[in-house]
Design goal:
189 residues; mainly alpha; 88% helix; cell membrane; MFS_Efflux_Transporters; MFS_trans_sf; membrane; MFS
Length: 189
């Protein structure tokens, strides 16, 4: 944690997971209240996220060979954009289904990208760095879901989702900062 590269990277991954889980944790009530899906449609939408998540995890490796830095920045930007579009189009089941499929595709690639970043950033300390990253991710998931829950209970889904989108945008900015330090010290493409 003495390296600015590691600090900004760990902050970026933490904020990414906070934003993701501030939104993802409250998809079910959103889908039930706003999109007005029944239980079987809800199950199909969640399955859709999972199936496209598997596809995203399988194919992200090809993108990572092209540009790791780009994936680390574009992923939270796309996720934030999807949240904003979901707020606008959430009453439409077809639009929501497409957005959730893309969410699954993109969101599951984030951990693969960040652990690739970790291996390139800390090749001699990958185990210690991995332990730190897992702890940060777990804390971030807890904080994101908790803060999202407080916002959802007291302000509704709109502010919850906007806060999640805002955190995702901050994650992209932190990823850019980490990339600037990485460019100076490492050859992370």
């Amino acid at each position: 944690m003495r390296s600015p590269l590691v600090v900004f990277g760990m902050l970026a991954v933490g904020v990414l997971f906070m934003g993701e889980f501030a939104v993802f944790t409250y998809l079910r009530p959103f889908l039930e209240r706003v999109t007005q899906v029944d239980v079987s449609t809800l199950s199909m939408l969640l399955l859709l996220i999972g199936v496209f998540g598997l596809v995203g995890t399988v194919f992200v490796g090809h993108l990572l060979t092209w540009s790791l830095r780009t994936v680390l920045v574009v992923t939270p930007v796309l996720m934030a954009a999807m949240v904003v579009v979901l707020l606008a189009a959430g009453r439409s089941l077809p639009a929501t289904a497409v957005l959730l499929a893309v969410w699954g595709l993109v969101s599951t690639s984030a951990p693969v990208a960040w652990f690739t970043w970790l291996a390139k950033t800390l090749p001699q300390d990958a185990e210690a760095g991995g332990g730190l990253m897992v702890a940060i991710i777990q804390l971030a998931i807890t904080l994101g879901a908790s803060v999202g829950g407080l916002l959802f209970d007291h302000q509704g889904y709109q502010l919850t989702f906007l806060a999640g989108a805002g955190l995702l945008a901050v994650s992209a900015a932190l990823s850019i900062a980490a990339g600037q330090f990485g460019r100076r010290t490492l050859s992370i493409n």
